[in-house]
Amino acid sequence: MMSKKMLDALNEQIALELSSAYLYLAMGAQLDDENLPGFAHWMKVQFQEETEHGMKLFDYVADRGGRVTLEAIPKPQTDFGSPADIFKAVLEHERKVTASIHRLYELALAEKDYATQAHLQWFITEQVEEEKNAEGILRQIQAMEGKAHLMLMLDRHLGARKAD
Ligand SMILES: [Fe+2]
Ligand SMILES: [Fe+2]
Known about the structure:
By secondary structure, the protein is mainly alpha-helical.
């Protein structure tokens, strides 16, 4: 059984992962509406991944004999601006999630909760990928600003993203 402090922090992280899923789904809705189906597809795959992150923590809490408490998920915006603005927001959001995972890890160290430390290792590694992906796509968009045909090529490329 983990400490109450650790349990509360894990429950908050579950809510953050599920609110990330909801945020990316809202971005996907805007991108579908703007006829960028590849970008929208990328967001829907991201929605699934974030849901899986939430569930990984959900199952972990249950495995440790803790009770999951679901928190409220904030209503996302409906307009996030241009594709460059959207990916700036994704990168900013992922940096916020990384900081939150790092705080969780620090708590697990302070609590001498070795099992939670081991479980969080996966998330620490995953956040490196998440930030790299968001930054990579943002840079591609910025490099092709104003070149519509290149944006359509990037849209096709993002449309080929497979769920891992
Ligand atoms: Fe995540
Ligand atoms: Fe993420």
